[in-house]
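queue> pop job 88
queue> type: inverse folding (structure -> sequence)
queue> payload:
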């Protein structure tokens, strides 16, 4: 990998690790405040809305500022969301602020990768990124579960800290009232996440400049939106891979976001696990995605990326099958298999989408278009899941409907793309 690539991986890993832990900690904050269960998906909706609303601005911003510096600023915004939770800001509003930081971070991160890495190494680079992202999801979700469980307060370092300061209640006697939440388990968890965002921001500053420069974008809001819409249509209409890759990745990330909450609910209702244990089970999916991503990065070249769409059909079938499972070992096996299918599908298609976007548009703008569509899908699917949860649909029904829709839609996209490829090949041979 090119010089500086490892700094991107390290910085985004720590940032994503804190993001996933922050979600679990924020859910715990909602629970502590006595909010109903359907408030939890609102966290994801608020986080994702930032991607959709800021998409016309995020691309030009990533192309106009040194990307490593911009990523450091975005980590500072994420840190402010943790600080907001610490001082009592509404959890949904605080997590939405973290989404603002993530919305500006993604085009800079993926755009920088596209600028630094040649096309022949792009699938491999995306494999590394996806492994890093999923490891962060795996460990971050586990970290969030550990933090909200309170078990870590009984570890040797925590006990030594308590012995030095006395008990948290005694510490509260001499701390100012505004700082007293910091000595609670939830407050200490948020302080840890603040430090993680700080470390990620410092690592961002060590990322080298790629040297890529782009024409200055118009700053008028109407012109920004018009240019963004044209870029969006250009990718959707691209027959060389932009259309199929954007379609599949858009559906995949929407399904993945809804599945994050479905697995938590399924683990509690069908497997009898609590929130922290459900978070660990949710992380099992990440193990499969890591395996699939590594396999794709090793054996799937960029020109063969479109052939991996079939794995989405298997993913949908696995979701339907999981709805009937009540035994933990079987659930773990199916979750790992579903994750592997997702990794095999999304890594090659994500690389193809980045390549086509870089060719047709620019690094930052193409990732902003991708983020807009994928997060609009997340808004729709998580919104639908929120509605069916509020309507008290059984979780088995939700999984069957979601899995069947995934299998059918991916199957239609796969067949149409293969038919178009055959028609194009026949036309070229005729000439």
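queue> result:
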């Amino acid at each position: 990998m090119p010089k500086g690539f490892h700094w991107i991986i390290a910085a985004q890993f720590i940032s994503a690790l804190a993001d996933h832990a922050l979600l679990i900690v924020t859910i715990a904050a909602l629970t502590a405040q006595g909010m109903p269960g359907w408030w939890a998906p609102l966290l994801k909706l608020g986080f994702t809305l930032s991607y959709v609303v800021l998409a016309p601005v995020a691309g030009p911003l990533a192309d106009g500022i040194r990307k490593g510096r911009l990523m450091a600023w975005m980590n500072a915004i994420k840190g402010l969301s943790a600080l907001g939770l610490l001082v009592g800001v509404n959890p949904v509003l605080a997590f939405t602020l973290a989404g603002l930081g993530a919305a500006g971070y993604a085009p800079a991160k993926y755009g920088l990768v596209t600028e630094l890495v040649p096309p022949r190494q792009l699938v491999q680079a995306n494999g590394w990124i996806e492994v890093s992202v999923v490891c962060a999801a795996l460990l971050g979700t586990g970290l969030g579960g550990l933090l909200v469980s309170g078990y870590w307060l009984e570890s040797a370092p925590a006990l030594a800290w308590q012995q030095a300061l006395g008990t948290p209640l005694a510490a509260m006697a001499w701390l100012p009232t505004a700082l007293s939440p910091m000595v609670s388990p939830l407050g200490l968890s948020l302080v840890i996440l603040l430090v993680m965002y700080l470390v990620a921001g410092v690592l961002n500053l060590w990322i080298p400049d790629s040297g890529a420069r782009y024409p200055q974008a118009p700053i008028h809001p109407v012109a920004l939106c018009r240019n963004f819409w044209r870029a969006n249509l250009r990718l959707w209409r691209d027959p060389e891979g932009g259309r199929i890759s954007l379609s599949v990745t858009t559906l995949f990330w929407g399904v993945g976001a809804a599945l994050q909450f479905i697995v938590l609910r399924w683990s509690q209702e069908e497997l009898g696990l609590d929130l922290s244990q459900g978070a660990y089970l949710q992380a099992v999916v990440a193990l499969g995605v890591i395996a699939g991503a590594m396999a794709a990065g090793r054996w799937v070249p960029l020109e063969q990326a479109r052939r991996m769409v079939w794995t989405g059909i298997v993913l949908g079938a696995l979701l339907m099958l999981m709805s009937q499972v009540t035994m933990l070992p079987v659930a773990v096996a199916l979750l790992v298999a579903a994750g592997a299918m997702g990794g095999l599908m999304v890594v090659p298609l994500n690389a193809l989408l980045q390549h086509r976007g870089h060719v047709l548009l620019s690094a930052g703008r193409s990732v902003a278009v991708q983020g807009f569509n994928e997060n609009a899908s997340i808004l729709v699917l998580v919104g639908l899941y929120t509605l069916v949860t509020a309507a008290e649909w059984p979780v088995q029904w939700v999984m069957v409907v979601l899995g069947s829709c995934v299998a059918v839609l991916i199957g239609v996209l796969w067949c149409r793309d293969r038919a178009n490829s055959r028609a194009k090949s026949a036309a070229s041979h005729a000439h």
